[in-house]
Amino acid sequence: MVILRRILLMTLRLNNWVLFWSSFTLILGSTLVIHYLEPDTFPTPFIALWWVMTTVTTVGYGDYYPVTVGGRIFAIFLYIFGIGLIGVMIGKVVDFFSEFKRKREEGRMIYKGEGHLVIIGWSSKANFAIQEILESTLDTDVVIIDQLDKTPLVKDRVHYIKGQATTDETLVNANITQAKAVLIFADDKIQNDELADGKSLLIATSIERLGKQVHTIVEILNENHIKNFKHIHIDDFLLSHETVSGLAVRAAISKGITGIYSQLISRRYGDDLFQLKPSPHWKTYKDAFHALLLEGATLIADKDKLDINRRLDESIKEDSILYIICDVHTYKNIQNKFSAVKE
Description:
The chain has 12 helices and 9 strands. It is an alpha/beta fold and 343 residues long. The model has no long low-confidence stretch (mean pLDDT 81).
């Protein structure tokens, strides 16, 4: 028993690859041995393999079994060492998946995907943004960067990286250079606007230094701080206080207007705002306007210009990015009919 115990303890300390190949060699070798010892009972290597697998996995159907002394002695050996070795290997496999799950939840896994969205800082705003992303896209992953002990959200397409977003190691682990876009939310735990925007600026600088091509969106608490971000070429700014205040004033002046805003910024219900490239058949905005209108969509803008209805006779440029309002079904039909490509 002491010798067996030492053998089992030594097996537990084996390298995983050594253990795997040892198990594979044991199964293959046992198949050949039992086939050689009892060719009448195990006439083919496949039948011999079937008996070895049912034996080492303790299933033991009893449809095949050795009948000679040599075969039974070898079976006893397989009972003692084979079952133990395979049991240890199965335990190692279970431990591997458990460790993988634990590392993923604790944010210690490196993300290797591409075209993902990175969200810096966990908050209620980040949670809402992630839910919107998951509902709006079917194949876009989200990577959260924060310093929480465990992932704040358990979803198939949501990954968590633990660390400071200003360090290269953390950003590299999130594969920041291959991301489609990065969203930097202001830290809700910092009450001072200057400190919160200062932290966002430091994070944005680190991101732009590693991946200048990444589309970066930053939430700014104080509009006066935007000029401090200009030198690092931030693509978009979100003025949270200004947006909420402006929406509240518009709601007070025009009753029910918040419902329109809600539809445009969320894809959970109603019509939505979609982006598409113009069809090569459209020469002017009038061509695009009428073609889209017949499909049930309304053309409202080219990039950030909302005066389309006053420039219908102007030619559409090659780099134009049109924005339309419609439902998801209509948008998909437009894509299929006019070969529009969503950004």
